Amino acid sequence: MDANDESPEFINTPYIVQVPENTPSGSSIFKIEAVDKDTGSGGSITYFLQNIHANKFTIDRHSGVLRIKTGVTLDYEKSRTHFVVVVAKDGGGKLRGDNKVFSATTTVTVNVEDVQDTPPMFIGTPYYGYVYEDTLAGSEVLTVVALDGDRGKPNSIHYCIVNGSEGSFEISNTTGAISVIKSPNHLKKEVYELKVQASEVSQEGDVSVYAFAVVTIRVVDLNNHPPTFYGENGPQNRFELTMYEHPPEGEILRGLKITVNDSDQGANAKFNLRLVGPGGIFRVVPQTVLNEAQVTIIVENSAAIDYEKFKVLTFKLLAIEVNTPEKFSSTADVVIRLLDTNDNVPKFSSDYYIARIPENSPGGSNVVAVTATDPDSGLWGEVKYSIYGTGADLFLIHPSTGIIYTQPWAVLDAEVNSKYNFYVKAEDTDGKYSLAEVFITVLDVNDHSPEFNENIQEKTMIIGSPVKIEAIDQDAEEPNNIVDYSIMQADPANVFDIDQSTGEIKLKSYIRSLDIIHNITKNKDCIWSLVVQAKDRGSPSFSTTAVLKIDITEETLHKGPMAAFLMQTKDNPMKALGVLAGVMGIMVLITILISTAMFWRNKRSNKITPVRRIIKKRQTPQPRAVRMEWLKFKRPSNAAEKFVVEDDAKSLQNENSNNNIQVVPVPPTAPVPPPPPALAPRGDAPGWRVPTVSGSLTPKFINKQLKKRGHGSAHNALVSELKMKFEKRNAAIGEPHI
């Protein structure tokens, strides 16, 4: 069965799409395609976008067709490039028993193409011009400037005067210069308002869009002078300066030597100064001038003066009169060329890098290449790489290329350590640096052979029960550490079976007794030598063989846990010895505890517990056979019936070693101890007990003890009855009184 072990892969990457900015919303712009080598649900692919809410695009989850979102339009002037992250995910499936889902990502670069959809824009409005009474016909009055609003592929601009000229002025259709074509003496009006049209002309010559501006031209009969800019060598309309990026805010651009002058007098000599260009970067001082002033330009936004953004900054310095009806004005170009400084830190292409390397890779093998860039120019943009951290000992990095490789002596072993983690540093010549984290996984390779246990050489097999062998493969992952077992050689061959997975060896099903085995072989000791093999499932596969001796025996007649244990530990006698020693120790401990408990119980009890026979003492030196009854205890109805004397069926052996009787007596049954007496002893004397003695008993001694103790009538009656029974018995057999 096909397992879900493949990830989707995008084909025909990288994806770069050119899309005109006027493409309608909802239009299809590209089709992403990914393939998955798995079958079934593991091979089916669905697509979706990351950050879909912030995206201008959407994707069909089944076909992979990328579209512009409904209601969304592209605008080249606002954003020229979009980066769309596409995720391809398979349908999931089983892998080693678990349900796995794999995915892959790619980035689609969408470049927005400029389309002529923005009209031209006039620069420097409003426009004012002056025609003096001494102006010559054909003289240029002023120039209007318009630019195509589409900056990607700008069209050329065509200028024309729509109305308001009355035949007195003309404009260059290419440059926008307006000239007076009549002598000022023939001009009928003092103020002319010209409506100028700027049209975009395509490469094919077609006029597409246009814009209008109003130009006010005054005719004066006074010889007024516009403000004029001067450099160190006279009038000048272009000033240049070279400076380092990011100067301090408030700094004066002292390299610019600019003076402005208006030769008129009084109110006609008052004018304002301003900078036209990217706003908020510089400001001009003074802003209002009377007659003449030194122009000072001051830094206002240091961050915007960035070499990596603008290598050249261009402004127009405009001087325009304030209180005159003519509003004379003049301009000068200010060009600032920037020099680079080391103001940027090297930046990695990713915050972390993930790599994998097989454990059998030789020393010096490449692992992963990291990349960091520094937008600074020259030596400041050069990056040097280094690594550090506890996991970096086995690795090196090329200081210039960022390639990480293993030490020449490094030996990677997934069984010892399969994960390495350390940091890589990208540093410029001034010591500015950034860090990225590196994760390296050592992939397991089948480089170990299975190894058998040490006690595999000999096994004892009971017919009907298997024996088991075991081999261990030190590889870290499956299938490299999965072991299969087989019998390589056995004589005769058709005797044993082995379980491929567990290593259990058992006899063929038809072998149920030693007689069958004796019919198979002449080897009477029933010991077989097998060559067994343990083989892993890696690629390439490794195997190990061993010789196993099996002693076959039948099940012992003694059944039970002890017999089974002894058979199982036949091959390991020290184990059996240790277990038996432990059992004996437990039994001794239990015996001691029981004896101690019995001792204390008897010591505190009033029971009479005779444990020895009463031997009669002979009065004559003649050896005779002594017969003696056993004392048997019955449950008495009263205290006097606690003892009953019965005759033995056979004579007992002479206990005094006179060897007159050679008959071996039958051991009597142990008497049952009687219950304790119902009568309580006197408070002034301890309870009476019959002590255990190891010798002959005499009635005199007993009488003395009774007299000394002075027991109650119940005890006295018991002893008297016992004495009478002894005397009656002796009189019946003709033996002397004890």
TrEMBL record:
Residues 11-122, 123-229, 235-348, 349-452, 454-563 form the Cadherin domain. Residues 655-685 are annotated as: Disordered. It comes from the Eukaryota. Keywords: Calcium, Cell adhesion, Membrane, Receptor, Repeat, Signal, Transmembrane, Transmembrane helix. The chain crosses the membrane at residues 576-600. Gene3D superfamilies: Cadherins. Pfam families: Cadherin. It is a single-pass membrane protein. The keyword Transmembrane helix applies. GO terms for biological process: adherens junction organization; calcium-dependent cell-cell adhesion via plasma membrane cell adhesion molecules; cell migration; cell morphogenesis; cell-cell adhesion mediated by cadherin; cell-cell junction assembly; homophilic cell adhesion via plasma membrane adhesion molecules. One of its GO terms (cellular component) is catenin complex. PROSITE patterns: CADHERIN_1, CADHERIN_2. The keyword Cytoplasm does not apply. InterPro entries: Cadherin, Cadherin-like_dom, Cadherin-like_sf, Cadherin_CS. It is found in: Membrane. Coiled coil: none annotated. Its main location: membrane. Residues 665-679 have a biased composition (Pro residues). One of its GO terms (molecular function) is cadherin binding. PANTHER family: CADHERIN RELATED FAMILY MEMBER 1, CADHERIN-23. This is Cadherin-related family member 1.
